[in-house]
Amino acid sequence: MNRHLAGVRVLELGNFISGPYAGQLLAELGAEVIKVERPQGGDPFRSFDGGQFSPQFCAYNRGKRSVTIDINTPAGRDVLLKLVEGADVLLENFRPDVLNRLGLGWEVLQQKNPRLIYCTISGFGPDGPYADRPAYDTVAQSMSGFFSQLLDPERPRIAGPAMADAISGLYAALGIAAALAGRAKDGRGHRLDLAMVEAMAAFATEPFAGFFATGRAPGPYDRAAVSQSFALRCADDGMIGLHLSSPKKFWESLLTAIERPDLGRDPRFSSRAGRVSNYPALCDALGQVFIRRSRSEWEQRMRQHDVPHAPIYSFPEVLEDQQIAHLGTFYTPNPARQGASRAVHGPLWCDRRRDEPDLPPPALGEHTDQQLRLIGLSDEKIAELRAAQAI
Description:
Blueprint: E1 9-13, H1 18-28, E2 32-37, H2 55-59, E3 65-68, H3 74-85, E4 89-92, H4 98-101, H5 106-112, E5 117-122, H6 137-143, H7 163-186, E6 190-195, H8 196-203, H9 205-214, H10 222-227, E7 229-233, E8 239-243, H11 248-258, H12 261-265, H13 272-277, H14 279-290, H15 295-304, E9 309-311, H16 315-320, H17 322-327, E10 330-331, E11 343-344, H18 368-374, H19 379-387
Parallel strand pairs: 1-2, 1-4, 2-3, 4-5, 5-6
Antiparallel strand pairs: 7-8, 8-9, 10-11
């Protein structure tokens, strides 16, 4: 979208997905994101495939600047403090108290730059009985109760993308944007803290609301039953997704499309409440119908009768879809780099424009000299710091 955060400088510290994803979102809004990496190897995600541009790294680091600084050295910390003086945001996702121990905590940096937005993402928050525990995506999804809404209790297996990391990054980027808007009014910097476990609990606000209202903990299929959502296999082994929601017309349109008015007369399915309470039986009944025709045939029938549906695509099929092509969802970074031959645009448009940068992820330390010159360091000083392995 339009570059509404143009001119905003973000320092990003930390390696795991939540922080880099928040930084990626800010970059898509036009901020200059300076990724501070270790001189020795950089972000561990870089080398997941043995090179410098693993798919995991490329996914969350497009268009950023890479600066290598060893903040464990006094000289490296001095360089970071100098960068902080001209920054608008510092975003980090180390364990709580790591930066405090290095003399780079909120109180110190706020003294250096009273307008700084200081955002910390952690597993469990800045304090409390679990604050020092290690946390990853699965840990946050587990403890927040979110996994109870996803896992089959009979055969629990972890599946799908890193939702807690991505959702925490979304909340962090939103909070940073809000803090920047607030600073524009009062001129003050702000400290933001985000716990991944809280982000996932907040994202599950609807099932929690149901639990608070009824006292009954929802199971993984409750929402699908209430929303009348179905995943159905077709004769050619393709799958199709349906979401009928509450309007009666969609149920009736489905019955017409599948030529099964008798299901509407079945006492189990004749009312919406019955279809919700008998959801497993309805899944089985529809499954026996959809297995008789190919997915393309069912798509045609669903379109003809205005039934909310979509094919359940594999990734290659997504790339071939005409609506996705029309939107220009995928693009080639310029210049293309190993591991970054294709990328996904951010989904936001403004005034029918999408002006986010199409730059690739940075090479390790690619912008170190450039950024240090911008804060007034001479080439001689930069060479001295490099010789001391501070950068």
